[in-house]
Design a protein that fits this description.
This protein has 119 residues and is an alpha+beta fold. It has one domain. Helix 2 packs parallel to helix 3. The chain is globular, with a radius of gyration of 14 Å. The C terminus is likely disordered. It comes from Homo sapiens (Human). This is Schlafen family member 13.
């Protein structure tokens, strides 16, 4: 099934492994509007990519935002909770840094824990 396909590629603009998971609907309100099957498929693609990056020592997950928001958008609670379960750590920022570039969302994943520093 094409909807679950993840393509792997190394892009010249990134020194790390880049996994392109295709279109993903981001934002809690937008994700709530999706049918359960589509929400589950998108979540599975993101989690599979995150698992691959963490097991390979790190890299980048690239997502094309299906909802095309131009303003910064959070991922959505179901995606965030699934990533926390994967890393078994409450702070996503210890493993993933998220950036939005136009209609693309990029997650930079580390292969090891970087707990937040206490200020």
């Amino acid at each position: 099934m094409e909807a679950n396909h993840c393509s792997l590629g190394v892009y010249p603009s990134y020194p790390d492994l880049v996994i392109d998971v295709g279109e993903v609907t981001l934002g809690e309100e937008n994700r709530k509007k999706l049918q359960k099957t589509q929400r589950d498929q998108e979540r599975a693609r993101v989690i599979r990519a995150a698992c691959a990056l963490l097991n390979s020592g790190g890299g980048v997950i690239q997502m094309e935002m299906a909802n095309r928001d131009e303003r910064p958008t959070e991922m959505g609670l179901d995606l965030e909770e699934s990533l926390r379960k994967l890393i078994q750590y409450p702070y996503l920022q210890a493993f993933f840094e998220t950036k939005q570039h136009g209609s693309s969302q990029v997650m930079d994943g580390e292969g090891e824990v970087h707990p937040p520093l206490d200020n």
